[in-house]
Amino acid sequence: MHRALDQLKVRPEAIIVDGNRFKPYYQPTANGQKQTAIPYTTIVKGDGKYLSIAAASILAKTYRDDYMNQLAEE
Questions:
Q1: What does the pLDDT read at residue 6?
Q2: Could you read off the pLDDT of 13-71 as tens digits, one per residue?
Q3: Structure pTM?
Q4: Where are the beta strands (DSSP E) in the chain?
Q5: Are 40 and 14 within 8 A, CB to CB?
Q6: How far apart are CA 39 and CA 54, in angstroms?
Q7: How far apart (Å, rounded) are the C-alpha atoms in residues 61 and 43?
Q8: What CA–CA distance (Å, rounded) separates 42 from 53?
Q9: What was the pLDDT predicted at 32?
Q10: Which pLDDT does position 31 carry in this prediction?
């Protein structure tokens, strides 16, 4: 998840996480110094409570399925 956050062009104001574990995320700066951690909330069964988590879950599963199909074809 941290790698995905690293690729964002816009710094999020907060992070919501499906589950009960998440290591604080510090967005890297150009000079290598750490910023303050972005606030986050972990939500057990978050995909049933937040549409944004449900949508992200569907996208992740679709990507995984396509990747697995691609591997099977090779």
A1: 87
A2: 999 999 999 999 987 777 767 677 899 999 999 999 999 999 999 999 999 999 999 99
A3: 0.70
A4: 15-18, 40-43
A5: yes
A6: 20
A7: 19
A8: 11
A9: 66
A10: 74
**Phi then psi for 59, rounded to 5 degrees?**
-65, -40
Find out whether 34 and 8 touch, Cβ atoms under 8 Å.
no
Task: Give bridge partners of residue 28 from the DSSP assignment.
Answer: 34
Buried b (16+ CB within 10 A) or exposed e, 20-51: eeeeebeeeeeeeeeeeeeeeeeeeebbeebe
Angstrom distance (rounded) from CA 19 to CA 12: 19
**What gap in Å lies between CA 5 and CA 60, rounded to an integer?**
14
- For the chain, the 3-state helix, strand and coil shares in percent, each to the nearest 5, are 40, 15, 40
- What's residue 30's pLDDT? 72
Report CA dihedral (61, 27, 40, 63) to the nearest 10 degrees: 0
Q: Looking at residue 74, what is its pLDDT?
A: 87
